C-alpha cells in the first residue's frame, strides 16, 4: 500500500542527508538502529521502520531505484493512490449507506491551490500528484493531501454500513479552528447514533489526555475542541445533538483500535483506527446513546432540511 504524503523518507528515518555517501548511510543506519531498538528506549515499530529504510536505500541499486521513483517511501509509485481514484465497479449487490456530498473535495482543492501557489503561478505543473513534486512540497501542503486521502478512505468505509445509515460528507459549518476550514468531514446517522467524524492524518501518533488529543505531530492543534465546535454548529442549525464525536486516523497512529476519551455536552468522544471505523459505527461507540426508529427518521428529516455542503 502506498505511504502517506507525510511519511518520512528513508533518508529522514536514517537521519542523513539525501545526498549522503554510502559510508554516511551506513553510519546513519547503525545510529538509527541503536536509537530505535526497544532495549534502548525505542519501539518495534521504529526498529522496523529503520530496517525498511535501509532496504530502500542501503545499496546503490536500491537507492537508484528509490530516487528514480520520485523519492516515494514505498517500493511502488504512490501516484495512482494520491490522484483522484476512478469509480470502481461493485462486486456485490448489498445496499450501501445513503451518501451525500463530496468527501475530500474541499481538502483536495486546498491542496491543489497550495501546490500551485508554492510552485509559482507562472510555472507549468504537468501532474500535481507527481511523487517527486509532493515530496518536495512544504509539510502543510503535504498535510492537505494526506487529509484528503484520509477523508476519501473514510467515505469508502462508511459506504459499507448499509441502507439503515445515512452519511453526509464535507458539511459547511460556522465553526473553524486557526487555519482550518469551516467544515465537518462526515456526519453519520443510524440506529446506533449520530456521529460527527473528522478524518485526520498528522503523520504521527496521537493519544488522549484529559479529553483532548495530544501528540508531537499536532503542532498545537486541539482536534476534539474543533470537532465539538463544528458538531455544535451543525446540531444547532438542525436542532439535533450528536451522540458521538469521532476522530479517525491511520491504524499505525493509534495505540488501540478504539479509545474513548470521555464526553462533552452529552456526546462521547473517541479516537478510532481507520480499519475499525465502520464496525465501531455499526456496533455503536461504548457509552454513546442509540436512537429509535422514529427518532432516526425525525433527525434525518431535520438534517436534510438544513445541511449545507462546503
TrEMBL record:
InterPro entries attached to this UniProt entry: Diphthamide-biosynth_chaperone, DnaJ_domain, J_dom_sf
Transmembrane domains' residue ranges: none
J domain sequence ranges: 9-70
Region ranges (Disordered): 61-105
Organism superkingdom: Bacteria
Protein name: J domain-containing protein
Amino acid at each position: 500500500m502506498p505511504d502517506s504524503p507525510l511519511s518520512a523518507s528513508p533518508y529522514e528515518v536514517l537521519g542523513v542527508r539525501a545526498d549522503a555517501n554510502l559510508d554516511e548511510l551506513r553510519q546513519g543506519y547503525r545510529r538509527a538502529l541503536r536509537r530505535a531498538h526497544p532495549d534502548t528506549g525505542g519501539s518495534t515499530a521504529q526498529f522496523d521502520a529503520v530496517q525498511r529504510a535501509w532496504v530502500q536505500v542501503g545499496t546503490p541499486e536500491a537507492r537508484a531505484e528509490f530516487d528514480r521513483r520520485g523519492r516515494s517511501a514505498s517500493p511502488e509509485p504512490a501516484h495512482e493512490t494520491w490522484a483522484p481514484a476512478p469509480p470502481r465497479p461493485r462486486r456485490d449487490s448489498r445496499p450501501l449507506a445513503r451518501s451525500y456530498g463530496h468527501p475530500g473535495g474541499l481538502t483536495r482543492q486546498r491542496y491543489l491551490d497550495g501546490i500551485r501557489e508554492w510552485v509559482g503561478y507562472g510555472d507549468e505543473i504537468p501532474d500535481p500528484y507527481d511523487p517527486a513534486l509532493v515530496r518536495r512540497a512544504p509539510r502543510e501542503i503535504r498535510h492537505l493531501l494526506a487529509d484528503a486521502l484520509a477523508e476519501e478512505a473514510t467515505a469508502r468505509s462508511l459506504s459499507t454500513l448499509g441502507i439503515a445509515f445515512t452519511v453526509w460528507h464535507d458539511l459547511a459549518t460556522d465553526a473553524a479552528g486557526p487555519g482550518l476550514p469551516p467544515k465537518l468531514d462526515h456526519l453519520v446517522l443510524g440506529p446506533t447514533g449520530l456521529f460527527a467524524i473528522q478524518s485526520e492524518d498528522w503523520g504521527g501518533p496521537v493519544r488522549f489526555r484529559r479529553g483532548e488529543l495530544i501528540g508531537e505531530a499536532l503542532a498545537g492543534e486541539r482536534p476534539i475542541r474543533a470537532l465539538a465546535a463544528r458538531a455544535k454548529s451543525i446540531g444547532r442549525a438542525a436542532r439535533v445533538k450528536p451522540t458521538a464525536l469521532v476522530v479517525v486516523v491511520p491504524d499505525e497512529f493509534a495505540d488501540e483500535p478504539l479509545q474513548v476519551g470521555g464526553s462533552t455536552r452529552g456526546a462521547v468522544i473517541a479516537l478510532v483506527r481507520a480499519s475499525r471505523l465502520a464496525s465501531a459505527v455499526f456496533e455503536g461507540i461504548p457509552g454513546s446513546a442509540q436512537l429509535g426508529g422514529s427518532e432516526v427518521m425525525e433527525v434525518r428529516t431535520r438534517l436534510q432540511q438544513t445541511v449545507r455542503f462546503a
